[in-house]
Design goal:
heterotrimer, A alpha/beta, B alpha/beta, C alpha+beta, A: Glutaredoxin, Rossmann fold, Ubiquitin-like (UB roll), four-stranded mixed sheet, 24 helices, about 40% helix, B: alpha/beta, Fumarate Reductase Iron-sulfur Protein, Chain B, domain 2, FAD/NAD(P)-binding domain, 23 helices, 27 strands, about 30% helix, about 15% strand
């Protein structure tokens, strides 16, 4: 007997086609209740549908909007069952995401049925100092990247005497390749709000903002529904007074992840940072004392207050407690969102959880454009704030990209620099012009016209940009370059000294070649070439070729490949 | 307010709490450079030129914004700090587009303030034009006639209509009008005296610039009259000697400059004695030895410079040379060809082993020689000269151009079996000239006097200037060399080290790489062709040595002046970026790469906003919004594309009172009055 | 300054967002109007609009194609996706075609990393693309358009 059917309708599910599945299921389900839930983190298996029955729950993966398939599903047949691979189950520790994808995100009732708002209720009985103390005991560090102790930040705000204090949730998740915060807001909006309300009680803040990326419409929608619900229920009444909670949408500026820039943006200004001190806890939104915490940090708070800071600190390491969410992507089998205890090794995440093939990975990129690349030989390093920093990366907000052997590290660094150059607000000389000059230098190197002096310049200028920038964006922008320079210097040198890109990724350093022994003369490549550079006798004019890969993609016998410019030719095998 | 203690560059300082490091440094006489800070407005913290380092924790911080804390040890002057500042400036320069100085001034060997004297001439103040030109060019009448006009070749006007402004004619007219009644200010004579060997342009210029500083000189001339090459090398039809006499008379009027003719070094005077008798000695003997053809029978040919000297001594009269072959392609060769044309009705040939394109002579000289009937034989190499039946017979080879040589010009190579013969009455070899350096002085591999680059000193108290240092060059180069030597002597006499100030010059690049849209115009440039040079009739040119070209009229100069687009920076004398870059050794070429946004807005009648020069410090935006309480300027875009503009980039609105606060506060020339201030 | 007034002014970005939602872009006239409403200098509002990439100053195409250039998509080949679209549509990153049908834009991250490479067309996400799939999607939109008009 089916109790209800849950369709994973977070962004990644929708992108994979969950919307069509939901629609069709609703038509076919009859009296069975079909609900939308969030994300369980196994994005590679989307769309995911869970059928709850009297005798237990069954999850189906890669569900297509086909009547035949859905009929089987409604009959709880044994097909396309989702089974998380055992190493992941073993290594993962779902503390803050335990409800994600399991409850209806916008159901206050369901959240409460799973101990939701118990932490807030408890907090309401506590003195602010006690809550702050509990958070200090948990040793929770900011999940947005910097790793500043959350309890300490709150104690600064608590100590401020002011007619108004402001608490801001930084949900401007700008790292390309990171979606932890999105998942939390989409799947568990109440948990984020609960953390914020506890914060309001703990610090005396009476004005609460969630500064959310505009690219996350579902998160904004779910948060707004949740806010309406708590206001209706009076959950937002703290010390007898209603606390105002507002979602503010950002408008596309990575630099607004920087707290002073975020505040300017909230105030309706250009999102440029300013010099600190004064810190926002002294002079924040419109001059009022303000504290800014990240979404994931707030999502941790209810657990800390509910179960106690000491209990929380049992998970993780001495200086990095609790769990961390990572958005796993890149060259691996099981991409998605994963929650792991601090202290787990990089290798466990990449190989055991991610299912990446050990021989095929050369590095991971942690922390997005602010982070660094860590080579495979350091994969036994535990994931905690200090270990990652010592390797030249940062915890960052949690983007973790697996880089396979077939990727060029110089090109990877160039990609990140291109991002930060585009996102620089333009205020500081070193960041505005320095990142541009670094990017141009990297383009020379990937373009085949770099020199050994260029490689040297990158290291020198990179250090100076770190010292000569006002905010986190500029201070970390050179990290992807500096870390690849450190661990993959040979790749840089191969580009500038031999004009060789081992990964065959840098266009200027490769030719495209048809192996006539393998070619079956089917004509597909000639037909699909957008610049008509393949002759009738199957020879590519590499002067005209734009290296678009169209021919390589369409070739049915893999007779076409990129080869090193001017080097030995061998294709296939 | 309580007091804190800190050190800046090791100096212990007590200061009241709450002040920035920059403020405290300023109060204590420690200079920290800054470009984005302005006392009246809130912090910008953008330029990072004021960066300092805290010694204990090694943290870097912008001193304009960082509030001093008790116990800080601030480093504002160590090499690493200076290096950071220099990099900030290198970066700002790499984004900065414009021409600090106009290319005419840069390319002028004497670096005369060209744009300024052209402007004075355009505005009708030719006396002022002369005054400005004479700051660097003590021979404006001569140079106004014979200069190869380096300035005009690099003139930005070329971008618009392929013809530079006729700059040299401004010098010529202003000098023709006012030279005799203009006398520059001179310092009182100090009693020190310098001996100068040679009264050519280099010797005269050295004497001139020394005299301005109060140093007297005695000039010794080997030949019967003064002027060196001006008198004995440049033909009368280019530089009439009565004009030269006028110009030279001025040197005597200055007081303290004496010229002694018929005094030859080594014969009538000796260096060793001069060294003792004078505070310093200047060798300015020029390059007078004609090079031979290096062929069999070369002694049958006349040396070009010798032949001209003989004509000069004869008052530009001489025997009919008959059919003449001049070998060579430089300016001296042209002088010989054109002089020969004035003395004979027979054909005059110029024989050159490459093509016209490779000729080192000025194009105008080639063109005028051709007008006068010169016949050019290009790609022809003489190999032997002999006398036969009273005629000279020159054996030649036909050449073709091969690969480029070290000079970048394509090397001529002989065509096999192309030998041929030509006959002539006179053969003149104008191949080149060499220096005959005085004995015992150090020389370089070309035989020129070897001097220190910084102060032009050869040895002890002996200096050298002009062609005898550089090899054969132009009058303006000799004059520039004379000035450098004078500066070297002045430092030497004071016992100081001679150091030329470091100059930073941002340039848009050579005009050939630019299009009309690459330039910034203060005012819309007028469409106007160059005023043509008027010449005397051809018959007169062929029959006499009368000066060929006319001096421009005042009306013509006024019109020609309107062609100048005044391309130098409005803020070139008042630019923090330039000043700090010079102090910190920053280099506009250090990074290269794409320049910042280059748009500009010159629609306002008096004010220009040039984004290419803007350093995005934000001062103007805040001065307007916080001090003046308007808010007419704002930042647009972000990152590398950030720029400051008015709303929708319209012209400044009517309620802008043109108070000029933003202009005064702009650290560079991004916001400025369009009308240039003359210093 | 009262708390309400403070909030009033900080709503600028929100108002601009709803203007864009309505009109598809922010015109000069809208900037002038909004500046007046907020009693802000026009140049300041223009400066805010130009700072954030979300705001468009020219009308976009009927179908706005966003090519995700997030890290996951990038390393799996989003550059090729953009190139293929450029070849197919004849417009470059940031441009709209002449008929005003398609506009093409490369964006930082659409947040669907596990489906890389992805694009979105008017908000609808298409993932795990290869050249064939991509060209079919574009062809389908063209077909739809041809059928509709």
């Amino acid at each position: 007997m089916i109790k209800r059917i849950k369709v994973g309708m977070a962004s990644c599910g929708i992108a994979a086609g969950a919307g069509e599945v939901l629609e069709l299921l609703q038509e076919m389900a009859g009296d069975n209740k079909v609900v939308e839930v969030g994300c369980i983190g196994h994005c590679y298996a989307e769309p995911l549908v869970e059928v709850e029955t009297d005798s237990g729950s069954y999850i189906y993966e890669n569900v297509q909007a086909k009547e035949k398939d859905l009929q089987k599903l409604l009959e709880v047949e044994d097909f396309s069952r989702f089974q998380p691979h055992p190493p992941r189950v073993e290594k993962e520790r779902e503390l803050i995401t335990s409800l994600a994808g399991k409850i209806v995100p916008t159901s206050l009732e369901e959240y409460r049925a799973h101990q939701g708002y118990d932490g807030l209720e408890r907090a309401k009985e506590m003195e602010p100092e006690e809550i702050v103390e509990e958070v200090k005991k948990s040793k929770l560090r900011g999940r947005g990247g910097g790793g500043f102790p959350a309890g300490l930040k709150w104690s600064f705000l608590l100590a401020k005497e002011s007619e108004n204090k402001v608490l801001i949730c930084n949900a401007d998740e700008g790292d390309p390749g990171a979606f932890m915060d999105r998942t939390l807001m989409e799947s568990l909006p109440h948990q984020v709000l609960e953390g914020m309300l506890i914060g309001a009680k703990a610090t005396g803040a009476r004005q609460l903002f969630i500064y959310c990326r505009a690219e996350y419409p579902l998160a904004v929608k779910n948060l707004n529904i949740a806010i309406e619900q708590i206001e209706k229920e009076g959950l937002n009444i703290i010390d007898g007074e209603p606390v105002e909670v507002k979602v503010k949408e950002g408008a596309g500026a990575f630099v607004c992840g920087e707290e002073t820039a975020l505040i300017h943006s909230l105030e309706g200004k250009r999102g440029t940072p300013r010099f600190r001190p004064p810190y926002p806890t002294d002079y924040g939104f419109h001059g009022y004392p303000s504290a800014i915490n990240n979404v994931e940090s707030f999502a941790n708070i209810p657990l800390i207050v509910r179960d106690g800071g000491e209990k929380f600190a049992e998970t993780g390491t001495e200086n990095s407690t609790g769990t961390k969410l990572f958005a796993l992507a890149g060259d691996l089998k099981y991409s998605g969102l994963v929650e792991v205890p601090m202290g787990i090794s990089i290798g466990e995440v990449v190989y055991d959880i991610g299912g990446a093939d050990p021989g095929s990975v050369k590095a991971v990129q942690i922390g997005g454009p602010s982070g660094g690349c860590i080579p495979a030989e350091h994969f036994d390093t535990p994931i905690d704030y200090d270990s990652l920093t010592s390797l030249g990366a940062i915890m960052g907000s949690g983007g973790l990209i697996v880089i396979g052997n077939n990727r060029c590290m110089v090109e990877t660094a160039r990609y990140f620099l291109e991002f930060t150059t585009r996102e620089s607000c333009g205020k500081c000389t070193f960041c505005r012009i320095g990142t541009k000059r670094m990017l141009e230098t990297l383009e020379r190197i990937t373009g085949g016209v770099g020199s050994p002096e260029d490689v040297e310049l990158l290291g020198d200028l990179g250090q100076k940009i770190i010292h000569g920038s006002l905010c986190g964006l500029g201070q970390t922008a050179p990290n992807p370059v500096l870390s690849t320079l450190k661990y993959f210097n040979n790749e840089y040198l191969a580009h500038v000294e031999e004009g060789y890109c081992a990964a065959m990724e840098c266009k200027a350093l490769v030719d495209v070649f048809i192996d006539r022994d393998t070619c079956i003369e089917c004509g597909q490549c000639i037909k699909n070439c957008p610049v008509d550079c393949i002759s009738e006798d199957y020879v590519i004019d590499n002067e005209v070729c734009t290296r678009c890969n169209s021919c390589i993609e369409v070739c049915p016998v893999d007779a076409i490949a990129r080869v090193a410019k001017g080097g030995e030719v061998s294709v296939g095998n | 307010m309580s007091e804190i203690k800190l050190t800046i560059d090791g100096k212990e300082i007590a200061a009241s709490e709450g002040k920035t490091i920059l403020e405290i440094a300023k109060e204590n006489g420690i200079e920290i450079p800054t470009m984005c800070h302005e006392d009246r407005i809130s912090q910008n913290t953008s330029c990072f030129v004021c960066i300092v380092r805290e010694g204990k924790n090694g943290n870097w911080m912008p001193s304009c914004s960082a509030v001093a804390q008790d116990g800080m040890e601030i480093d504002s002057s160590s090499d690493v700090v200076r290096e950071m500042r220099r990099t900030a400036l290198d970066l700002l320069l790499s984004e900065h587009s414009g021409d600090c100085e106009a290319p005419c001034t840069i390319s002028c060997p004497a670096h005369a303030r060209v744009e300024e004297y052209v402007r004075a001439g355009r505005d009708g103040d030719l006396r002022k034009a002369l005054e400005i030109a004479k700051e660097r060019i003590p021979l404006p009448m001569s140079i106004g006639r014979v200069c190869p006009r380096f300035c005009e070749k690099d003139c930005r006007r070329n971008v618009l209509d392929n013809e530079g402004v006729a700059i040299n004619d401004f010098k010529r007219l202003s000098a023709d009008l006012y030279y005799e009644d203009y006398m520059e200010e001179r310092k009182d004579l100090t009693g020190q005296k310098v001996a100068i060997i040679g009264s050519g342009p280099a010797g005269l210029a050295t004497a001139y610039f020394l005299r301005l500083e109060g140093i007297a000189s005695d000039i010794f001339e080997k030949l019967p009259e003064t002027g060196g090459m001006l008198r004995y090398g440049i033909p009368e039809y280019r530089l009439p000697k009565n004009i030269l006499d006028k110009e030279l008379a001025h040197f005597k009027k200055m007081g303290g400059i004496e010229i002694f003719c018929n005094k030859e070094l080594g014969k009538d005077i000796q260096i060793n004695e001069l060294k003792k008798d004078y505070d310093a000695v200047v060798i300015a003997v020029g390059s007078w030895k004609a090079s031979g053809m290096r062929t069999e029978g070369e002694e049958l040919a006349r040396g070009g410079i010798d032949w001209l000297e003989e004509l000069a001594r004869n008052g530009w009269q001489g025997d009919d040379p008959g059919e003449t072959i001049v070998v060579g392609g430089g300016n001296t060769a042209m002088d010989c060809v054109r002089s020969a044309l004035r003395l004979t009705d027979k054909p005059v040939h110029c024989m050159y082993r490459r093509t016209e394109k490779e000729m080192p002579a000025e194009q105008i000289e080639i063109d005028e020689a051709r007008e006068e009937g010169a016949r050019f034989n290009f790609l022809t190499q003489p190999i032997k000269l002999r006398k036969e039946n009273g005629k000279l017979v020159l054996e030649c080879l036909q050449m073709e151009l091969g690969e480029p040589d070290a000079s970048g010009r394509r090397r001529p190579v002989p065509i096999e079996g192309s030998e041929f013969e030509v006959a002539a009455d006179t053969v003149i070899a104008a191949i080149g000239q060499k220096t005959i350096a005085p004995e015992d002085l150090p020389t370089n591999k070309w035989g020129d006097v070897d001097v220190e680059e910084a102060d032009c000193r050869a040895e002890d108290n002996v200096f050298a200037a002009g062609d005898c240092v550089s090899g054969p060059a132009t009058v303006v180069e000799a004059v520039a060399g004379g000035r450098r030597t004078a500066l070297g002597i002045l430092a030497f006499l004071k016992g100081e080290k001679c150091e030329l100030p470091r100059q930073v010059n941002v340039s848009r690049g050579h005009w050939q790489s630019l299009s009309e849209d690459d330039l910034v115009y203060l005012f819309d440039p007028e469409e106007k062709a160059r005023v043509p040079q008027r010449l005397i009739p051809l018959e007169e040119r062929l029959a006499t040595f009368k000066e060929v070209s006319h001096t421009f009229t005042e009306e013509e100069i006024g019109e020609e002046g309107k062609r100048c687009i005044e391309c130098s920076c409005t803020a070139k004398n008042d630019c923090s970026l330039k000043d700090f870059s010079e102090t910190y050794g920053a280099d506009p070429e250090k990074f290269g790469g794409e320049k910042g946004i280059k748009t500009y807005n010159s629609r306002h009648p008096h004010i220009i906003l040039d984004n290419g020069k803007c350093i995005k410090c934000g001062i103007c935006v805040k001065v307007c919004s916080e001090v003046v309480n308007e808010y007419l300027l704002g930042f647009k875009n972000r990152g590398f594309k950030t720029k400051v503009e008015t709303a929708f980039n319209t012209t400044l609105p009517e309620f802008c009172t043109e108070c000029g606060e933003c202009i005064e506060a702009c650290p560079v020339g991004a916001l400025d009055w369009k009308k240039k201030k003359d210093e | 300054m009262s708390k309400d007034m403070v909030l009033e002014k900080s709503n600028l970005i929100k108002v601009l967002q709803s203007e864009q939602k309505k009109e598809g872009y922010i015109s000069d006239a809208a900037i002038e109007r909004i500046a007046k409403e907020f009693d802000l200098p026009v140049v300041e509002v223009e400066g805010v609009v130009s700072f954030y990439t979300q705001f468009k100053r020219v009308p976009p195409g009927k179908y706005q194609i966003m090519v995700c250039d997030g890290t996951a998509c990038h390393i799996i080949g989003s550059t090729l996706i953009l190139n293929w679209l450029t070849d197919e549509l004849g417009i470059k990153d940031g441009e709209t075609d002449e008929e005003g049908l398609f506009s093409l834009e490369s964006v930082a991250c659409l947040g669907c990393c596990s489906l890389a490479p992805v694009i979105s067309i008017n908000g609808k996400v298409y993932g795990k693309l290869d050249r064939k799939k991509l060209l079919k999607i574009v062809a389908d939109y063209r077909k739809k358009e041809a059928a509709g008009s």
